[in-house]
């Protein structure tokens, strides 16, 4: 978009920038153009947004696009949280205007993992996702798999862990548009949880953090497409991603049933499997997960044949935990019999657990590519908005 096209768009919406006060000026990695009633800013993606009034005054005081806020990512919008209030979103935060207190900025302290104000509504929706997932464990393995395949029609019948998560989330009321866009693979989910600020190298698997988002997905608010991240921030319902380094540090972790787990179980450093949290015990750092297309355990008494992991020579897990020990952990915490099975050995809906301590989160040095990994790479919390009906652009 160029400046003339933006002016036409604003005019059509009833906002008039007035006469031009000069040519476009270079600022940061973009441009700005001054008008009587506003300044238009164009970022490196050639997106243009206006800032005016008291919000513009505060933005100029902070340093405009070369400040910590960065470039604007929306035009001025009504603030539904403040009577008569307004707001603009920016790359790294937003500025609100209150008729009583004036303009006030909020700058993100960490662009890679913003805080998440987890509401009771979101907790309830996530619990519904987890509860539904558990019902699939209470049926024959083939029936559970057939339900997922009939609903999701995986493009690769040998790789359907993301389709399983998507099936769980859709049944829990999540937006089909969001699920279909992001949930099929680990790279999509890392982009989803970080708003395109975190990914991993497809060859080495190494974590990659981007100083600016690789892409800026939009949500339509008040009839205008705005940055999805900024919209979530303005409502206090941001997504959240906990990465391996934070898990490895051993501190308290904010994990809920229904959260998304990216698991790294290959000879690289990036995630290759998708799971969903069923239960988290902070005291002993045991994370119980349900997944599809994995080798998880089955619930006893649901038409599944038990096998002895010792007899098959397959008792040792890659995370330095015996399968028989995992069975005991699951039975003690769930209060129900759990069995190891060879049924559906090529992939099934199952339940298992991870112990989030350093001796059970296996991460060999990057140069030892022949050694297997076995670690939770990330835990992702969705936004409440992902369970609402919205119009999206640029996903």
What is the topology?
Layout: H1 3-12, E1 25-27, E2 30-34, E3 39-42, E4 48-51, H2 53-62, E5 77-79, E6 85-90, E7 93-98, E8 102-107, H3 120-136, H4 141-152, H5 161-171, H6 176-182, H7 186-194, E9 198-200, E10 207-209, E11 218-221, E12 224-227, H8 228-235, E13 240-243, H9 244-248, E14 260-264, E15 273-281, E16 286-294, E17 298-299, H10 323-334, E18 338-339, E19 348-355, E20 375-381, E21 392-393
Antiparallel strand pairs: 1-2, 2-3, 3-4, 5-6, 6-7, 7-8, 9-10, 11-12, 11-21, 13-20, 14-15, 14-20, 15-16, 16-19, 17-18
Helix pairs in contact: 3-5, 4-5
Quickly list its features:
alpha+beta; four-stranded antiparallel β-sheet; single chain; 10 helices; 26% helix; 395 residues; 21 strands; 25% strand; 2 domains; six-stranded antiparallel β-sheet
H/I helix tally: 10
Number of strands: 21
Helix coverage percent of residues?
Answer: 25-40%
Q: Whole-Å distance between the termini?
A: 18 Å
β-strand percent reads 25-35%
Task: Return Rg in Å.
Answer: 24 Å
State mean pLDDT (0 to 100 scale): 88
Shape: elongated
Number of domains: 2
Low-confidence region ranges: 109-117
Lateral strand order in the biggest sheet: 13-20-14-15-16-19
Structural class by secondary-structure content: alpha+beta
Note the quaternary state here. Answer: single chain
Largest sheet: 6 strands, antiparallel
């Amino acid at each position: 978009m160029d400046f003339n096209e933006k002016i036409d768009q604003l005019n059509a919406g009833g906002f008039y920038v007035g006469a031009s006060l000069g040519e476009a000026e270079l600022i940061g990695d973009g441009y700005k153009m001054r008008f009587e009633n506003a300044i238009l800013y164009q970022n490196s993606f050639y997106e243009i947004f206006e800032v005016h009034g008291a919000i513009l005054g505060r933005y100029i005081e902070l340093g405009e696009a070369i400040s910590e806020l960065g470039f604007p990512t929306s035009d001025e919008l009504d603030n539904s949280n403040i009577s008569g209030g307004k707001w603009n979103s920016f790359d790294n935060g937003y500025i609100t205007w209150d008729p009583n207190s004036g303009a006030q900025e909020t700058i993100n302290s960490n662009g890679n993992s913003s805080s998440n104000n987890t509401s009771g509504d979101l907790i309830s929706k996530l619990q519904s996702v987890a509860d539904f997932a558990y019902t699939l464990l209470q049926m024959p393995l083939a029936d559970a798999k057939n339900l997922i395949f009939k609903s999701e029609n995986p493009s690769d019948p040998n790789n359907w862990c993301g389709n399983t998560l998507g099936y769980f989330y859709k049944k829990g009321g999540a937006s089909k548009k969001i699920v279909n866009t992001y949930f099929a693979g680990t790279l999509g989910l890392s982009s989803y949880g970080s708003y395109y600020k975190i990914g991993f190298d497809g060859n080495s698997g190494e974590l990659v953090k981007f100083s600016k988002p690789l892409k800026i997905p939009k949500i339509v608010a008040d009839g205008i497409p705005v940055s999805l991240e900024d919209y979530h921030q303005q409502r206090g319902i941001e997504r959240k991603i906990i990465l391996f380094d934070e898990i490895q540090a051993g501190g308290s972790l904010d994990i809920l049933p229904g959260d998304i787990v990216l698991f790294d179980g290959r000879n690289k450093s990036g995630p290759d499997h998708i799971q969903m949290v069923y239960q988290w015990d902070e005291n002993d750092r045991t994370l119980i997960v349900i997944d599809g297309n994995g080798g998880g355990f089955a619930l006893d008494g649901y038409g599944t044949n038990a096998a002895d992991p010792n007899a098959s020579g397959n008792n040792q897990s890659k995370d330095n935990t015996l399968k028989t020990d995992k069975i005991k952990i699951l039975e003690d915490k769930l209060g129900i019999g759990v069995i190891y099975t060879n049924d559906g050995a090529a992939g099934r809906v199952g339940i298992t657990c991870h112990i989030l301590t350093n001796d059970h989160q296996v991460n060999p040095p990057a140069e030892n590519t022949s050694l297997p990994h076995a670690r939770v790479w990330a835990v992702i919390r969705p936004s409440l908005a992902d369970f609402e009906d919205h119009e999206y652009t640029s996903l």
